[in-house]
Design goal:
The protein is mostly helical and 188 residues long. It has a domain of 90 residues: Aspartate Aminotransferase, domain 2 (3-Layer(aba) Sandwich), CATH 3.40.640. 40% of the residues lie in helices and 9% in strands. The longest helix has 15 residues.
């Protein structure tokens, strides 16, 4: 099967390349600490593991799940956000369970961008931003995050015509990969 030119135009995902290096080094007996992926290095609590194991044995848990996330799950997630951050979220319209952050970040471009739409993407950035723009047929315009600006985007430096055309901009703080933070004044 021939791959599309769009897919062939992508560079290898950095995480995959780094994982190959990590695997090789470990096979050589080297003790390597992986700081490249937010993958937990401790087991979940025993009561959660037991609950998951018990749920797997229930007779009706062999079907495909509903296309809609169960309300109790979304309510539990909204309640956690309220306890943790004081944020009140509507479980039906503001909570979307995903397989991981990259899935949501990657797919949201297809929901917001039409082919040719401009998306402002920080540079450096989490790779899912640029990949999602490309798959959606959007046009990526890089917005540099410079140390002399505390790794915040200089919004005034974005050309007016580009700013007017932009359908979306990615702003995430604490920032991945710089770890920079933005205070409330930046957003205001």
């Amino acid at each position: 099967m021939r791959l599309s030119n769009r897919l062939k135009s992508f560079d290898a995902y950095l995480g995959t390349a780094m994982n190959l290096i990590l695997t090789k080094m470990r096979s050589e007996g080297k003790d390597v600490i992986n700081l490249g992926l937010g993958d937990p290095d401790v087991q979940p609590p025993e009561h959660l593991r037991r609950a998951l194991a018990d749920a797997c044995l229930e007779i009706n848990h062999h079907h495909y799940p509903s296309f809609y996330s169960p309300r109790p799950l979304k309510e539990a997630m909204a309640n956690w956000y309220q306890r943790r951050f004081g944020s009140v979220l509507d479980p039906e319209t503001e909570v979307l369970p995903l397989l991981g952050s990259a899935e949501g970040l990657f797919h949201i471009h297809s929901c917001l961008l039409d082919p040719g739409d401009v998306a402002l993407v920080p540079d450096p950035a989490y790779p899912a931003y640029a990949a999602g723009v490309a798959i959606a047929g959007g046009v990526e315009v890089k917005v540099p995050l410079l140390e002399e600006n505390n790794f915040l985007p200089d919004l005034a430096a974005i050309p007016q015509d580009v700013a007017r055309q932009a359908k979306m901009i990615w702003v995430n703080y604490p920032n991945n990969p710089t770890s920079a933070e933005a205070n409330l004044g930046f957003y205001q």
